[in-house]
Design goal:
- This protein is of the alpha+beta class.
- The chain has helices at about 95-110, 165-175, 180-195, and strands at about 20-25, 30-40, 45-50, 55-60, 65-75, 80-85, 85-90, 110-120, 135-145, 160-165, 200-205.
- Strands 7-4-9-8-11 form a five-stranded mixed β-sheet. The protein has a three-stranded antiparallel β-sheet with strand order 1-2-3, with no helix packed on it.
- Helix 2 packs across helix 3.
- It starts with 18 loop residues before the first strand and ends in a 10-residue tail after the last strand.
- The mean pLDDT is about 95.
């Protein structure tokens, strides 16, 4: 059997087709639908519709017992209650993603962490959205001081619970867990633990070209 041909480095690279026109087809409360007229490599024009998204951050909080902290909430588009990471939108202009992650960990789980690192960056739906998510690994955890964040709306019935990382990985492989950021982060953490590489993860302030800060 012949060896596969390797072409270039195994890394994603910035690129952009020529955009002849851009228009907002739908303007929503949080995100818009944009239509771009682009020139494809063969010279033909095509329209690409996609969701314009502010970006988001997530937190994989890992305690000393190998457990991760998850939240469970209703997601209307998929008609499911999903187990997810504490997470939130980057809807404050110019906000440092780390600060956003620290806020979400406090608001959704009333915890803080002494050690923060970048675990994984993902484009969860790159075929239809420019959404970018940065997931941080948070360790050296403790409960936050003061009163808990006053939840409202869809977060009123949010559940918060600790689970062994092994159970999360098994649930993902069994098709019982479906949140993309959670699955990507759990698998990344499992790989980092297997290589004893937690301390070599990127620092919390590592550059993020998808959402510069």
């Amino acid at each position: 059997m012949s060896e596969p041909t390797v072409q270039g480095e195994l890394r994603d690279t910035p690129d952009s087709w020529e955009v002849r026109a851009e228009r907002t087809s739908f303007e929503g409360k949080v995100w818009d639908i944009v239509s771009d007229d682009v020139v494809m490599p063969d010279g033909r024009a095509a329209t690409r519709d996609y969701m314009k998204h502010p970006g988001a951050v997530g937190v994989l909080a890992l305690d000393g017992q190998g457990r991760v902290l998850l939240v469970r909430q209703y997601r209307h588009p998929v008609r499911h209650r999903l187990w997810e990471l504490p997470a939130g939108l980057l809807d404050v202009p110019g906000e440092n993603p780390l600060h956003g992650a620290q806020r979400e960990l406090w608001e959704e789980a009333h915890h803080k962490a002494g050690d923060w690192r970048v675990l994984v960056d993902v484009y969860p739906t790159s075929g239809g959205s420019d959404e970018a998510i940065r997931v941080f690994l948070a360790r050296d955890l403790s409960e936050a001081e003061g009163e808990k964040f006053a939840a409202d709306g869809e977060e009123l019935d949010m559940q918060v619970q600790w689970f062994p990382l092994d159970d999360v990985v098994r649930g993902a492989l069994a098709g019982e867990l479906h949140n993309g950021a959670l699955i990507a982060a759990a698998m990344a953490l499992r790989a980092a633990l297997a290589e004893d590489a937690l301390d070599t993860l990127r620092p919390a302030d590592a550059p993020w070209p998808a959402r510069p800060f």
